[in-house]
Write a structure and sequence with these properties.
Blueprint lengths: L10 H15 L6 E7 L5 E12 L2 E7 L3 H9 L1 E8 L4 E11 L2 H10 L2 H9 L9 H14 L11 E15 L10 E8 L2 E6 L3
Antiparallel strand pairs: 1-2, 1-4, 2-3, 3-6, 4-5, 5-6, 6-7, 7-8
Helix pairs in contact: 4-5
Bound molecules: flavin mononucleotide (FMN).
Length: about 200
């Protein structure tokens, strides 16, 4: 890992270094991040998701396409993701276009999931009001009984979303934390070229 984040020539190397380190340092959910969106009236929303894949094509997570986040992200096809490492003093922020990933990739990932998670994804009308916990449990049991001994197909409403970066900011705290003069490097896509700049902290 580079001590000076301005040595990174691309955001993917920075992500890979900090995320690999995070997996060594943090046992539970090192891939947790916030995904932010804006609704049709301009109200912001953010919620925690788990990042499942990162490549130069972007950051992938899985969700219900008809959830509030699904509706908002596809309303203007823009999204934002914030990943934070308390242990390393790093945040990585990604702004970009959103797309559904290929159905075949979502199929494979869905098939790899725990059966109970497959059932939950199938019955959940994510973000809609549910009358009670009991209703949820009854729906779960009914689905589990109906599909006993059968493969559960990926529901159309559930799959991967990729946020394709147009701007990625890497923020890293300095050892002299109290000065608050931390490092901020931003990679911005302009005419198919990534431009690297430093920002005031
Ligand atoms: C640690 C953690 C991980 C989560 N991972 C996911 C996830 O990968 N996908 C998802 O749809 N929701 C995930 N959730 C639930 C979301 O935070 C959120 O409650 C849900 O997706 C509904 O959001 P929405 O109503 O804004 O669409 C996670 C929550 C936590 C606390």
């Amino acid at each position: 890992m580079s001590n000076d984040i301005s040595n990174y020539n691309n955001w993917l190397d920075a992500w890979n270094d900090f995320y690999e380190k995070e997996k060594e340092l943090v046992e539970l959910d090192p891939n947790a991040a916030l995904v932010s969106s804006v609704d049709a009236e301009g109200n912001p929303n953010a919620r925690v998701i788990l990042i499942k894949d990162v490549s130069n094509k972007g950051f992938v997570f899985y969700t219900n396409y008809q959830s509030q986040k699904g509706k908002e992200l596809f309303h203007n096809n823009k999204g934002h993701l914030t990943w934070y490492s308390r242990t390393q003093g790093v945040s990585i922020r990604i702004q970009g276009e959103v797309q559904k990933i290929d159905a075949s990739i979502s199929d494979n990932y869905f098939a790899s999931r725990d059966r109970n998670a497959q059932i939950s994804a199938s019955i959940s009308k994510q973000s809609e009001t549910v009358e009670s916990r009991e209703v949820l449990d009854v729906e779960f049991k009914k689905f589990a009984d109906d599909y006993e001994g059968k493969e559960i197909p990926r529901p159309d409403h559930w799959g991967g979303i990729v946020i394709q970066p147009e701007k990625v900011e890497v923020w890293k705290s300095r050892d002299d934390y109290k000065t608050r003069l931390h490092d901020r490097i931003v990679f911005t896509l302009s005419n198919d070229q990534w431009i690297k700049s430093r920002l005031y902290p």
